[in-house]
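Hi V.,

You were right to ask for the full record rather than a summary. Here it is.
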Amino acid sequence: MRVLGIDPGLRNLGWGVIETAGSRLSHVANGIIHSEGKDLAARLLSLYAALTRIVADHAPDAAAVEQTFVNKDGAGTLKLGQARGIAMLVPAQAGLAVGEYSPNAVKKAVVGVGHADKGQIAHMVRYQLPGVELAGADAADALAIAICHAHHLQSAGRLAAAMRGVA
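Predicted structure:
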């Protein structure tokens, strides 16, 4: 199964695709979309177009997006929310279920602690996906989101199998 992880951002949107085979994870691709345009609408359109190409090129089976955290700048949070809307819309248009995870849940799944810094996240992504060349911190975060979702899907699958066995 291929999983697309997305770290939403209005200027820089990180993305990463991994493949799962049982409990094995492997890197497929990662990158950062740098939005283009002077106004918000143009930036959102450029994110939409680029992310649509990535979904078409890599044909993921599932997707996950990091949840927005509210910061002190209300206007900045709203703009991030609009980029997050694009990050959820594109996979949904492709017929994919989209998981959502808080930043702390992603960090716990990948690093083991909920308050890890970006360096720790990148280190553990490299550890779990040997040989990966990270396009940057946003791409590392996106791969971490994909890893978190893959673990969640595997756990849900095992629980469903166990429930079928009980029935």
